[in-house]
Amino acid sequence: MGDADILSTLQAEAWNQLGEGMIITDPSGVIRFVNRAAADMHGVKELGVEATDYSETYNLLRLDGTAYPSDELPLARAVRDGEVVENEMWLIDRPNGTRVVAEGSARRVYDESGVVLGAVLTLRDCTTRERDLVELQQANETQAMLLDEVNHRVANNLSLLISLVRYQRRRTDAAEAISVLDQVQSRIQVMASIHSALYRSDKAASVDVGTYFVQMMQDVAQAIGGETPITVECMAPDQIVLPVNQVIPLALSVNELMTNSLKYAFEGRETGEISLLIEQMADKRVITYRDNGIGLPADFDLESSGGLGMTIVTTLARQLAAEVTVQRDAPGTCFVISF
Known about the structure:
The structure is a single chain. The chain is an alpha+beta fold. It folds into two domains: about 120 residues, Beta-Lactamase (2-Layer Sandwich), CATH 3.30.450.20; about 210 residues, Heat Shock Protein 90. The protein contains nine helices and 13 strands. The strands form three sheets. The chain has a six-stranded antiparallel beta sheet, with helices on both faces. It has a five-stranded mixed beta sheet with strand order 8-10-11-13-12, with helices on one face. A hairpin with a 5-residue loop joins strand 4 and strand 5. The longest helix is centred in the middle third of the chain and has 44 residues. Keywords: ATP-binding, Kinase, Nucleotide-binding, Phosphoprotein, Transferase, Virulence. One of its GO terms (molecular function) is protein histidine kinase activity. Pfam families: HATPase_c, HisKA_2, PAS_9.
């Protein structure tokens, strides 16, 4: 055996060791070599097959299961037109009745002077990958359906709770009880609004806080506000998104601060203003809540105030690992929450 024959044998064996399938044609498109992986993939190893017979000999189909005309196959296009085909997919019906999803690339091969030597098709078995993708898609669709059902039930339950609180409120004349029920209703409505924002969001675990707080503050002002007209403003940079485990305590804290302002800050005033500023600093977020009401008592202390609203605020702040401070350098009331 001459050196050329030895080299050819070694090359053929090297190609047979490849995990990818390989089919080689001569310049006219006649199949001259099929490596072991390609033969296993097709369940067929036929040499001397012309381009017009590729599909029938190797049982090739489109992904939709219809016949794949031989002249439209990647290898035929590479042979005939010199087209470089990359990562196209098709089906192989094997003689044993199994079906393979194949992905392959084809191109002409030239010598140094530009003369066509033939064409090469490389292909891989993607059956497992495609099956896994289908199963994953089905699992995602099932999960989405179940999540939609859960969200629907949660929304209904929260609405029912709000209705029950409203019903109980209408049946009592005690001012203190009415006040307590109003606060309970407000807190449930905050939870319901967060759930609604999550339900509408493409990101089921996070909320665009700027958009959310604008609506939430308007809702709270409408629900609790008295006779004094209140202007509500929320300022936030675009696209500040927080995870739900931060949004919930933050929203409840703002709700408590607004409730206090609406109940006590504007007594005797013709108008009132409440604002929320959300800022993203280098390493933390800062939430500044402010009203232009009568202000806090001179001896007010956040930690020892004893009121339920302030207790809720400080408790929620600990959940956020946040610092809450009271600023007294401006008219009205100003709380700063940083975390």
